[in-house]
Amino acid sequence: MIIKSRLASQLLFSLILGAATFGAIAQGHNDPRWITTWATSPSTLPPTSEDNELVNNQTLRLIVHTSVGGNALRIRLANYHGDAPVIIGDASVALQAEGSSIQSNTELPITFNGENSITLPRGAVIFSDPVVTNVPELTNLSISLYLPDKFGFLTAHALSNQTNFISSPGNHSSSTNLPVQAETPAWNLLTAIDVINDGNITTIATVGDSITDGWGSSDSDNQRWPNHFARRIFNDTTIQKFAVINAGISGNRVTTESSPQFGQNLQARFERDVLAMNKVSHMILMEGINDIGMATMESGAPMLADKIISGYRNIIARAQAKGIKIIGATLTPFEEAVYYSEEGEVQRQAVNRFIRNSGEFDGVIDFDAVVRDPSNPKHILPAYTEDNLHPNNAGYKAMAEAIDLNLFR
Q: Which stretch is the leader sequence (predicted)?
């Protein structure tokens, strides 16, 4: 059953609170109904300096937005890029109220192999025990993780376009009102949330860079184009529902990498960030503008379209080998962006010709045509951007509204 009102969600959380500990073992990890409702891609690579901010005897409170709902959940935690094992001393899930606060009587403990605490080895990913509870669709959840000591560098999605919270010292995982010591844009350690859903539902993975990550949208407001797309699917009764997950990383590239906060190149992270998620049937790929623009800033010349296309072909082959339909999305205009060049524009047009005309993708979404200025096609429509590269809320909504839903029927 899907609960849409805050009051109904809160009441249902309250009713199952006493049974949650026992219910957590009711669903096995091999249940075929598990589907990934939310995900993020770890972007941070270990820094080259010693000035990395550390969490020490503090509670992280991470705010995430579901797509599909379900009747049980589990979280995934990862220490992919950490430099030491990390101990999770306590963990919980609740419905967000506002900011760092959670709705009263909705907090439920999350356990690991029946225990409140677990050590996350360096380089590892772990699943929590299933927690039997109603998970509302299109709703903000609050995941609290208590870290009882200082564990060094924490794997994170660095630029989430979501305000998350670090508490004052102590275990505050069950606190309704978190005593906040700091705010952070990072989703630390948390990489995915799966739910059990009884419907015939699969997952659409949206894969890309900052434009998929939602940079330029309003903070903590779920205005990324994948969020708009999920709401559109859920509001359209003519199409089946899908989970929609976001595998975008700001600054990411198809072929190379530079800054530690921009993550591993897509070739390296694809298995972890897409293929490892549950029930992915489709993916939308929109990436390559950073290969062109950042290369121009670094070497004075953009990366050639042929190299980006070679990367696309690798991703296409790997997706299709897993039975995933891969839809190519054209690169949007970037004239007057900080790394624009006329040579880069030539490469962007060549990449877009491949996406539109090669026939190698299973479908095409022409985001370029959606957001470009008709009077100057090299430039994004001024009403859709603040920096001539990233769409704003209106631009992201226009992108989502323009997607042909027949690609997913």
A: 1-26
How long is the chain? 409
Q: Beta strand 363-365 with 325-329: parallel, antiparallel or unpaired?
A: parallel
Q: Where are the beta strands (DSSP E) in 9-68?
A: 34-39, 58-65
Q: Which fold has domain 200-408?
A: Rossmann fold (3.40.50)
Specify the pLDDT at position 47: 59
Report the helix count and the strand count for the chain, using DSSP H and E: 10, 23
Distances (CA, A) of 361 to 126, 254, 319: 33, 16, 10
What DSSP assignment string belongs to 341-403? -HHHHHHHHHHHHHHHHS--SSEEE-HHHHHEETTEEEEE-GGGBSSSSSB-HHHHHHHHHHS
Predicted pLDDT of residue 249: 98
Hey, where are the domains in the chain? 6-193, 200-408
Instruction: Give the C-alpha separation, 364 to 326, whole Å.
Output: 9
**What pLDDT is attached to residue 10?**
47
Which residues lie closer than 8 Å to 274 by C-beta, 6 or more apart?
205, 207, 247, 280, 283, 319, 324
Mean pLDDT for back-to-back runs of 10 residues, the chain (409 residues): 41 42 58 97 71 80 98 97 94 98 97 97 97 97 96 92 98 98 96 97 98 98 98 96 98 91 95 98 98 95 97 98 98 98 98 98 98 98 98 98 97
Q: What is the sign, positive or negative, of the torsion defined by CA atoms of 4, 230, 248, 268?
A: positive
Q: Compute the half-sphere exposure of residue 330: CA atoms within 13 Å on the CB side of its CA.
A: 27
